[in-house]
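FW: tagging you since you asked about this chain on Friday. Here's the raw sequence from the shared folder, copied in full. Didn't touch anything.
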Amino acid sequence: MKKLDWYIIRKFLGTFFFSIVLILSIAIVFDLTEKMDDFFENQVPLKEIILDYYVPFVPYYMNMFSSLFIFISVIFFTSKLAGNSEIIAMHAAGMSFHRLMVPYAVSAGLLFALGMYLGGWIIPKSSERMLQFTDKYIEHFTTENARNMQLEVEPGRILHIESFQRRSGIGYRCSIEQFEGKTLVERITADRIYYDSLEYWHLDNYTRRQFDEMRETLDRGKRLDIQLPIIPDELFITAQQAQQMTTPELRHYMERQRARGSGNVKAFEVEYHKRWASPLGAFIMTLLGVTMSSRKVRGGMGKNLGIGVVLTAAYILFSTVSTTFSVNNVMSPFMAAWLPNFVFLAISIPLYIKASR
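HL: got it, structure written out here
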């Protein structure tokens, strides 16, 4: 690393963080203006507004729009370098275009590591406070009732509950089926089921049928205590809560749900893959930004910035649309998260080859 490399890295990261402060400050002002009526109507304490909403707001949206910030930052300061003929001077001093990319790659690597750490561990915990605040004061999205739940709580054991109320902790019309391979060996039905503690559940007015080849044993009673490796909160996990899980928690939850046979993991799989795809987008957007703005062109920085904003908006829109396709089973979660990167990488490589010549 030479002095010129450190110069480019400082320009890159300085412009990146300056653009974050500028754009998020404007975003906070607009968001505060939009939600001011909700804050006054619900008499929200100022401390909660700052600590539980706007403090998590900054890293959450910084990570969400990191591609925008990176792309615009690269185009802004690289166009300025080209406009001042600094890149021409670098080439005249013997620095090739490939060598010029080294400090850009180092800067993108630092932002990749920062994005992985924030998106995988810091933002999930802070966004939990923000979503709880939103649900409490602005827009209610949590539900108190769940219906027609069926899942494999452990290998060969299927639980079905027709309806379950979070507030009372009581479920109605449930069945528990035990299989050995494909053979049903036991089936328990009950009018009510409710949770006690330590994964113990109680069944009221139950009927238990046990099957042994051609024989059936019938047992009825008022109450049956049974242990199931599930707690009521797991019945109410929604797609929004994927953002509140750290990367290890998210991976563990998906593995557990797949083992149970639950099909409601698409949104969680997309979120997991985006935890990797979005930070890696730093390299792609850096590559595309440098190749677009490293030459002095008529129209200068304004033209490059205009093209940059359009392309970044297309990238973010593409990411959103592909996520919707995955949730609707049009494409796999992996492709939904990675397709925007693949497309923009395919655009960047020919431009890079042309620019290096």
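FW: The longest helix spans residues 97-137.
HL: agreed, and The chain has two domains: 3-138+265-356, 145-234.
FW: great, closing this out.
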